[in-house]
Each structure stands twice: as structure tokens, then as C-alpha cells.
Amino acid sequence: MPATGVNEKKGELWLQFCRPILRYLLWMLLAPYLVGLVDRCQAQRYTPESPEVRAMVDRAVGFIERKGLDDARFGAEALAGLALLKAGRDPSHPMVQQAAERVVRHIPTSSQELYRSEMVYSLSAATIFLCELDPSRYRREIQHLVAGLQQLQKGHGGWGYPVGHKFEASGDTSMSQFAVLALWEASRAGIPVPGAMVTRVGLWFVRTQDPSGGWGYQGIVAPGWDLVPQNDVRHSLSAAALASLYAIADLAGLRGRDRQIRDSDLPEIVRPARQEGRETDTQVRMDGKILQMAIARAKAWQRANYMIDPPRFRYYYLYALERMWTFREYLEGPTSDAPPWYDQGVEFLRRTQSPEGSWEHECGQVPDTAFGILFLVRSMKKSVEKVRNFGEGTLIGGRGLPKNTGDVAVVGGQVVAKPELANLEKLLATADEEGLEEADEWFEALLALPPDEATHLATKYSQKFQSLATSASKEARLMAVRALGRSGDLAMVPSLIRALEDPDPDVVHEARRALKRIGRLDKDFGPPEGFSRQQQLEAIEAWKRWYRTVRPEAEIED
């Protein structure tokens, strides 16, 4: 046999011997990638529109509808109302309206009310709920809620328990993350949010991060930038805190390196408003590098400790987990290392849903059921998509946007049509009360002004507002009473006391809040919620007695 034939035969034998080994080695090299590919394909098995998911959501919504909103915390009712809205129930749904009415009634009007232990949760949940329901209609209420959160923020930047509680000095990670979400929702709904609030809580989150990258229950603030160990590091708190850092990054205008947005790329209406060459007080000032380092540590903790069913606060955790992954995808783009968290969450909720449709672990039956619904419907994704879809014809706050965006301006973080601002004083000066009733945009424009300018106009045209306070239109009376409250002028008190006699309870309570504001009072003289006619009359007399103590020379009708 020729030498070449012998060599070919040996080559064939060698290939036959090596082929199985090569197949085995190739399989070992490719197996991890193939398994990962299968896992990623399986992770897409469920979506919020999947029949199995919709059935779970419908059962949970049915449970809330049967159970009713009977929680003593108005924030819990707001959370349930939010879940109904996100699940697709109409804003006119009786339970949604019931939740809205209770939220509006229970907005704190005194320090005693404001400093209750659960108030940070309630203020935050109420803000998120009203921003979802109708941020234009409830603009003033949302502003009051944000102001309450501002008053409750602690010196170190976090939120926590009130004076007298054993944790009064520290910041509570759970409360703080909920407050951040409320500020994000309010800002994206067009409500001015003080940038200093966001900056301070951002620094608090950075300085209370455990060296491992997670977060504990009561934050221990590091004296410098060297992190200190935290107590009781949990999955739920760590996911919620990372989501908060992403929300703060978004409010600060920070994006992933490949998604950097320059100010010059933005349409004029969404660039930061500037006054006399200075950034307005709605600007969030965060060092991007510090924030990104904290986010990187938190992502490493998530990779090392991920699970779908941690031992503590499981449904609260799912709500935070969905928010965290949504923000991550929104700010950084799709990621290849994401576990099949949604699919696993759906399976976990399917296994643990009760026959009546509820879930319950450590937050209570209605709140935990609401958390389950919010996870299944991808609540945060819906909010983010609403922001992404912001475009021609729609203001963030829900009002119409002029097609010519050169005719709008940003005032205190709110998009307002320039003609409204330019003509506001002219409108107030020339229109009679009937004309103001029909042109309610004057009130929206008044509220969009900086506080000192709004106070100036409310005082200057107080006579018209006093006349409008006796209008036949409830909405006009309500707007006029609120405007009088913005004046800060004690001379407006007699008109507001007369408004306490209004036949509509909403106007009465608005007059009570306006009196408290003008008098700078921590408490008030009523009338209380659900007042009787006798209580209404007693409150009127009490306010008159108070007014005579501060203005003995003033004349007031008896």
C-alpha cells in the first residue's frame, strides 16, 4: 500500500477516535449557553396579558371588591384603589371613588395628625394613587401631600418614625423608599418637587448601604463615604432601595452611559427651568459617580442573593422587585443577566393565592393582595410607559399641550402655556366673577406660579375671590376659597368664616384648611369630618372667637 494511503487510513481512524471526544467537549462548552437560552425563553412564558395572569388578577380584584376598604389607614385604601386602577378598573369605579374621597378627607391639617406613625406610608400611597387617578383634578391635594412629606423628612435625609418612638432618630428604609416613589410619581405628573428633598434622601440611601450592597431596616448613616455594616439586611428592603436609587437617578437626569441625554437634545418644554441663570429649586443635584457606585454594589448584592420567595414580607418584596427591574430596564436598557423573575413571581403567586383570591403575609390581607395585583399587572412598567409616551398633545399633568411647543414654559417644574401666564393678571383685572367661573384656567395658572407671586396676586385680587366664594358654582367657590387661603392675609378671615356656612362639605373643609393656613395654626376649630349642623355652627362661633383674639378691632358678622 502506498504511504499516502496508509496515512489517510490512520487519519480516518484518528478522526473516528476523536469525534466523540470533540462532540463531548463542544457540548460541555455550549451547554451553559444553551441552558441560559432555554431559561430566557421560558422566562417569557407569562405576560400581564396571559390568561392565567388575568384570571389571578380578576380573582384578587374580586376579593378587594367583596372585602371593601375598611382599613383604618387611609394609605391602605389608597393602595387598594391604585391596584384597582392598575388592574384596569375605571376611575368611576365606586371603590376607587371611595378611596379618593377618603384620601382627600384625611389629608393632615395639623401637626398632631401629621406625626402619626403610619403617616409617611399613607402620604406616599395617597400621592401615588391620586397621580394615577387624575393628577390635574387632584393637583392641590397632591401638593399638600408632597408638602407633608417634606415636613416629615428627617435631618439626615430619610423618613422614619415620629418623636417618642424608639426609632425616632433613625431613618426607615421602607418608609423612605415609598416616599421616593411618591416624589417620582408626583414629579412625572407635573407637580413641583423640591430638588433638595430628593438630593438629601439620595445621599441618605448611599450612606446607609451595607458594604455587601444591601440595605437594612433602620439605616445607620456612615460618618463619611466608607460604608458601615447595617442591621437586618433584607431582600425586600434591598430591592426597594435599589429601585429608589434608580428613581433618584431619573429625577436627576442621569442615564446609562449609552443612553446619555444632553440638555440640548430635549424639547424646550422639558428642559430644567432656569431663573436669572440659576437652576430652580426643583433641580436634583447628585454626583453621578457616587450614585452609580451605590447602584453597582446593589446589583452585585441582587445577583448573589436573588430569590423569589424570601422569608420576610414576600408580597411587598414582589412589588419592589417589579419596580426595581422596570427602572433598571428603563434607565440601562435590556440586560442579559436578568433571572426569570416575572415568570417565577407568577408561579409563586399562583401557588399562594387563597381560594377567595387574596394573598397575605406580613402587611395585612388587603395591602398584600394589592401588592400581588401590582406585581402581576407590571404596575411600574405602566407608569414608565406613560412617561415614555409623553408627547405632542399631552402634558405630564394630564392637560392638553399646545401643538406649538414654543408657546409653553416650565414654571416650578410644571408645564404651563405662556399665554395663561402672560394674561393671568389681565384676566383677573378685567373679568367679572361670572367670567372667572367660566375661565377656570386662571386657577391652574395661579397655582403654577412661585408661592410669593401667587400670594401677591391672591392678595391683590382678593375682592374678586371673596365675591366668587359666594358663587352658585361649587367649583368656583372651592377655587376661590383656596385662592383666599393662598393670600396669607388675616383680612380674608371673615370671608373664609362665611365659607364655613357653605352647604357643600368640600367647601367647608377647604375653608377650614385655608383658615389654618392663614392663622399658621397647628390645630383648628373644626368642623370635623362628617360634621353635623350643630358642629358646623359651633365651629363657626369658635373661629369667630379666635379671630377676635388676633384682631380685636375687626368687625365680623354675628
What does this structure look like?
This protein has 558 residues and is an all-alpha fold. The chain is 59% helix and 3% strand. The chain has helices spanning 3-43, 51-67, 74-86, 94-105, 111-114, 119-133, 139-152, 173-188, 195-207, 235-251, 288-305, 314-332, 341-352, 365-376, 379-388, 418-430, 433-438, 441-448, 451-460, 462-468, 474-487, 493-499, 505-519, 533-550, and strands spanning 171-172, 218-219, 274-275, 278-279, 408-411, 414-417. A hairpin with a 2-residue loop joins strand 5 (408-411) and strand 6. Helix 6 (119-133) runs parallel beside helix 8 (173-188) and helix 19 crosses helix 21 (474-487). The longest helix has 41 residues, at 3-43. The chain is elongated.
Total count of helical runs of at least 4 residues: 24
> Which stretches of 5+ consecutive residues score pLDDT under 50?
33-43, 256-280, 389-422
What's the average pLDDT? 76
Strand order of the largest sheet: 1-2
Query: What would you call the shape?
Result: elongated
Order of SSEs, N→C? Answer: HHHHHHHEHHEHEEHHHHHEEHHHHHHHHH
Helix percent reads 55-70%
Q: How many E strands?
A: 6
The N- and C-terminal alpha carbons lie at a distance of 131 Å
Our estimate of the beta-strand percent is: under 5%
- Alpha-beta classification: mainly alpha
Q: Major sheet, described briefly?
A: 2 strands, antiparallel
SSE layout and pairings?
Layout: H1 3-43, H2 51-67, H3 74-86, H4 94-105, H5 111-114, H6 119-133, H7 139-152, E1 171-172, H8 173-188, H9 195-207, E2 218-219, H10 235-251, E3 274-275, E4 278-279, H11 288-305, H12 314-332, H13 341-352, H14 365-376, H15 379-388, E5 408-411, E6 414-417, H16 418-430, H17 433-438, H18 441-448, H19 451-460, H20 462-468, H21 474-487, H22 493-499, H23 505-519, H24 533-550
Antiparallel strand pairs: 1-2, 3-4, 5-6
Helix pairs in contact: 2-14, 3-4, 3-6, 3-14, 6-7, 6-8, 7-8, 8-10, 9-10, 10-11, 10-12, 12-14, 12-15, 16-18, 19-21, 20-21, 21-23, 22-23, 22-24
